[in-house]
Write a structure and sequence with these properties.
- With 124 residues, the chain is mainly alpha-helical.
- The chain has a single domain, classed as Orthogonal Bundle (Globin-like), CATH 1.10.490.10.
- Helix 2 crosses helix 4, helix 2 crosses helix 6 and helix 6 runs antiparallel to helix 7.
- The longest helix is centred in the N-terminal third of the chain and has 18 residues.
- It is globular.
- This is Group 1 truncated hemoglobin.
Length: 124
């Protein structure tokens, strides 16, 4: 039996580590860092947002965690995210997966999900 995406990403602990490193990558990415750097000055908000991202990835990858946050359209409404920003964020995710030793098939599965969400995130 094939392992779920959740299991292949390391379950809750692995996803938490991935999210922490993705957020850090976003804060260091000149294309999108302006959107993420303010979280450094608000650790409580950073922790809350990071937990929401963990829950989103855990639930969306087949884990038992429940995601109770806003939908993608609502969460990104009014942000006017450009194609360049979307690709920069996606590149950060993919680089982080690679750095964590996530296999190619799993990376491709995550990339497919990212592209499936593109229309709900960009310029909504």
């Amino acid at each position: 039996m094939e392992r779920s995406l959740y299991e292949r990403l390391g379950s809750a602990a692995g996803i938490k580590a991935l999210v922490a490193d993705v957020v850090e990558a976003h804060m260091n990415n000149p294309v999108i860092q302006a959107r993420f750097l303010p979280y450094r000055d608000d650790p409580d908000n950073l922790a809350a947002v990071s937990q929401q991202l963990c829950d989103f990835f855990c639930a969306g990858s087949g884990g038992p965690e429940a995601y109770t946050g806003r939908g993608m359209v609502e969460a990104h409404r009014g942000m006017n995210i450009s194609a360049e920003e979307y690709l920069a964020a996606t590149d950060d995710i993919m680089s982080t997966l690679t750095a964590h030793g996530i296999d190619e098939q799993t990376r491709n599965d995550v990339l497919a999900i990212a592209y499936a969400l593109k229309g709900e995130i960009m310029r909504v």
